[in-house]
Specification:
Layout (H helix, E strand, L loop, with lengths): L1 H29 L1 E6 L1 E3 L2 E2 L3 E7 L4 E2 L17 E9 L2 E8 L11 E9 L5 E4 L4 E3 L11 E7 L5 E8 L2 E2 H9 L1
Antiparallel strand pairs: 1-11, 2-4, 3-4, 4-10, 5-9, 6-7, 6-8, 8-9, 11-12, 12-13
Amino acid sequence: MKRNLLLLVVGLQVLWIVAVSAVQETRLRTGTVIRLETRPVDPRDLLRGDFVILAYPVGTVAPSLFPGGTPPETTVGSKVWVRLGTTNGFHVARGASFVPLRGTAAEPVMAGTVKAVHGDGAFDVAYGLERFYVREGTGNPHGKLTVEASVSAAGDATIREVYVDGVPYAKAMAAERR
């Protein structure tokens, strides 16, 4: 009896890990690929190692992106969907809504969460793309960072690659160490 219970618990844990990996891989393979400009900050977490905090222009949503303006009930933690379009090779915010939007290949939609509300009605949105973990000692890139991400039909985004001056992050940091 105890052996069966142990096998069940271990089996459920393995199933959970496989399911999480399958969801991420599906999102990376089937999602719409977007490119975002970034503004890096270089923190270090003693428990997690080096990472780069990435801030995006699409992370600040203006009231003008909403039909009729931002509703007054906008609060931290609200879910928001942002429609993207391309300008100069990068995706930028073209519209927003507090109800789910349907994206297309030409205009994907990213889902995020309001993390701060400004006095002018604009607010900051977190999409889950704000941290990029790197090898120890490589968390201070020099150059223009861009991010290639994959966005699922539901609006969930996953970082595919970070580039430093157009070169994949790992290669750029290896060349910088030489």
